[in-house]
Design a protein that fits this description.
CATH topology: Spore Coat Polysaccharide Biosynthesis Protein SpsA, Chain A
Number of domains: 1
Distance between the termini: 44 Å
Order of helices and strands: EHEHEHEHEHEHHEH
Number of strands: 7
CATH superfamily: Spore Coat Polysaccharide Biosynthesis Protein SpsA, Chain A
Shape: globular
CATH class: Alpha Beta
Largest sheet: 7 strands, mixed
Radius of gyration: 17 Å
Number of helices: 8
CATH architecture: Alpha-Beta Complex
Low-confidence stretches: none
Length: 228
């Protein structure tokens, strides 16, 4: 799509053999798909490779954040100029990738955030209230995000382990990254378990990430104020 601006789409997958090939084929016209097989017990890795993805195998399972962190590190090793995070369950429409990648490739933004029609859980809605009031961003929790690799290098990691794909985005926003938001389509899940879990467990995990985000925000803002 942009031959002089290599983009890798990082797709964490755990037991997503039924959907991963279709996701990979959808991504291929836009960027290089990198599937992180997070200790799957089915044929996720094999199906991804057959469909044309670069596959990184993890063992044991590291969870959603650990898979993303490993995938972005692999993308840097492979020479990506930018990475996009994408789900393996078929919920995202690959056609939205063009709108995410273009601002990064054309130098309009350092960070592009997908914006869903609405939050899927109470915890996500509360996280998004914070993001809207604090930064004017309606949906910080959407799993479809694009990053120029400079942001990753400055921070030194993608995720420390429990941010539900918000750590690097929030860190970059707090430090003045150029941000663009784009609407994305959400389709019905085809198979597999939700990436954050279900019910009370999922909301608890998201609210923990929100608490960490607020603490990091306060620490960064206080530190900036103390230096001025």
């Amino acid at each position: 799509m942009f031959p002089d601006f290599p983009v890798i789409v990082v797709i964490p997958g755990y037991n997503e053999a039924e959907t991963i090939a279709g996701v990979v084929r959808g991504v291929l016209p836009y960027a290089t798909p990198l599937v992180v097989d997070d200790g799957s017990s089915d044929g996720t890795a094999a199906e991804a490779e057959k469909a044309g993805a670069h596959v990184l195998r993890l063992s044991p399972n590291r969870g959603y954040e650990g898979a993303l962190d490993a995938g972005v590190a692999e993308a840097e090793r492979l020479g990506a100029a930018a990475v996009v995070t994408f789900d393996a369950d078929g919920q995202f429409d690959p056609k939205d990738l063009e709108n995410v990648i273009r601002p990064l490739a054309e130098g309009e933004a350092d960070l592009v955030l997908g914006q869903r029609p609405g939050a899927a859980r109470l915890g996500e809605a509360l996280f998004n209230i914070y993001a809207r009031l604090r930064f004017g961003i309606r949906d910080i929790v959407c799993g479809l995000k694009g990053y120029r690799m400079d942001l990753y290098r400055r921070h030194g990691r993608f995720d420390g382990g429990s941010s539900i794909n918000t750590e690097l985005a929030l860190h970059s926003i707090l430090r003045g990254a150029r941000v663009k938001t784009v609407p994305v389509t959400i389709r019905a899940r085809e198979t597999g378990a939700p990436r954050f879990g279900t019910g009370f467990r999922a909301n608890k995990r998201i609210l923990k990430a929100l608490r960490q985000a607020i603490c990091a925000d306060v620490k960064t803002s206080f530190g900036a104020g103390a230096r001025t």
